[in-house]
Design brief:
CATH topology of the largest domain: Rossmann fold
Shape: globular
CATH class of the largest domain: Alpha Beta
Number of strands: 19
Structural class: alpha/beta
Distance between the termini: 60 Å
Strand order of the largest sheet: 6-7-8-3-9-10
CATH architecture of the largest domain: 3-Layer(aba) Sandwich
Radius of gyration: 23 Å
Length: 503
Amino acid sequence: MTTAPTGAVLLSLDGITHAFGRVRALESASLQVRTGSVHALLGENGAGKTTLMRVVFGLLRAQQGVMRWHGAAITVRSPSEALALGIGMVHQHFTLVPTMTVAENIALGGRGAFDPQRAADRVRDVAGNAGLVLDPHARVQELPVGAQQRCEIVKALARDVTLLILDEPTAVLAPAEAVEILRWMRGYADAGNAVVLITHKLRDALAVADDITVLHRGRTVLTTAARDTDQASVAAAMLGGARAPSANDVVNDVVNDVVNDPSGAASGPPVLALHAVTVRDASGVDRVRSATLQVRAGEIVGIGAVEGAGQHELLRVLSGRLTPTSGTCTIPGSVGFVPEDRHRDALLLDAPLFENTALQGAGARRGVVDWNGFRARTSALLQRFDVRASGTDVHARTLSGGNQQKLVLGRELEAARAALVVENPSRGLDFVATDAVHQALRAARDAGMAVVVYSSDLDEVMLLADRVFAMHDGTLVESVKHRDVLGRAMLNGDGGAALEADA
C-alpha cells in the first residue's frame, strides 16, 4: 500500500459513466480526492452519488471512464480488491450480521481459522486507536444505532484502509453522536488519510469538508474548496441552478424560540390513546415505562429522544405492531407506519413496485389478489407522490432513497384514514425530497389525520410538530416546543422542570 504526501491526489475519477438499462445514473462524472482531506459528495436523491462510490468500491463497473489510484489507472472488480488497495466503504444501510458479535462481524472476510481472542483483541486495538468505543463481545442486534455505525467504521479500519467512503453516516444518529462521528472523520483525515462523505446535511458538509463535489443527474456540476462556497451556492448546484426551496431555509434557521402557533392546535377527538403502557423486552428490561399519551385528529405530535430511550417500541405500540406488556392502548383498525429502515422493514427490494404496494394490509387480505388493480393503484401513487420510476414493474431496489421513501409514505397514506406513525421521515433524503415528505405529513394533518413523528433530528421535530414529547429511559413527558428545553428533557426526563426553568 503506497502512502501519498499530504495534499496529493489519492483518487481520481474521470469521465465515469454507468447506466442501469436505459437509465444513465452517471454521465461522464469526475472527482478528485486528496490525501489528508474530507471530500463531501453532494447531490439530490438519484443524482448518482452512491452509484459513483460503488464504482470506486468495486460493487459496480464503469462502462466508460478512468479511475486512478495514486496516479495509476486501475479497474476495481470487487470490494475485496478495493480493500486490498486501501479503500473502504460504510454503507447507508448497515451490512452487519445482527446475530453475530462485534468481533465476529469485523473478522468476516478475513483469512485463516477464526480465533475469537485474536478477533476481540483486534477490535480493541483498532477501536481504541480510532477513539471509537466498542465491546467486541456484544451482539450487533443488541447495539444502538450509534454503536452499529462505529462497528461498521472499525470493520473498515481493521483492513488498514487509507480512503474511507461514508454514505450518510449521521442519518440516524442522535445530535451528540453525529458530532462525534464528524469530529472523528476530521481527525482521521488529519492523520494523513482521506474521507469521502456522502451527506444531505449541508451544514455538516461545510463544517467538516475541505473539498466539495456536487452531482446533478449523474454529471459533476460543481467542484470547489469548502471555504470558497456557501449553502446557497451548493444548494443551487444540487438543483441544477435553481434556488433551494424555502423549506430548507426554514430548517437551517429553525427554532430556538418558543413557537406558539394556535393555527396548529388540534381540535378533533382523540384517535390514538395510551394509558400507563409498559413494554418489557425478552431480557426483562422495561423499554417503555407507564407511558400515557393522546394524539388527536388534525395534529402532529413530535417525539424527541436519544437512541435507545424507548421511542422505537413506543411507535410500534402506537402503530399496532407491538403489544404492550401492561396498560391500555386504543388505536384505529388501520394505522399507517413508516419505519426508519425502509430496506429492512418496509420494502421488498427485489420485488416490483406494485407488489410492494400490495404489502400494505397483506396480513388481513383474503381471496384472490387483484394484481391489475394493484398496478393501477401503484401507477396513481407514483404520480400523486412524485415517485420517479419508469413503471410499476421495476424493482424497488432501482429507486433512489428519496423515491423509495416517498413510495412507502404514499402507500401508508393511501391506506390509513385516521392515523399515521412515522420514524425518521427524512432519513437519507436531500432537501427537495425532505420538503416533499414534510408537505405530505402536513397535508395528512390538515385532512384530519392524527400523526406521530419521531426524528433523531431535533430541528425536524420542531419544524413539524404541533406538540412535542421527550422520551428518557422509557419515560414519556410533554415538553415546551423549544429546541433547548426539549433537548434537556430528552437527557434528564423532566419535562416539567424544563418548563419551570424557561417560564
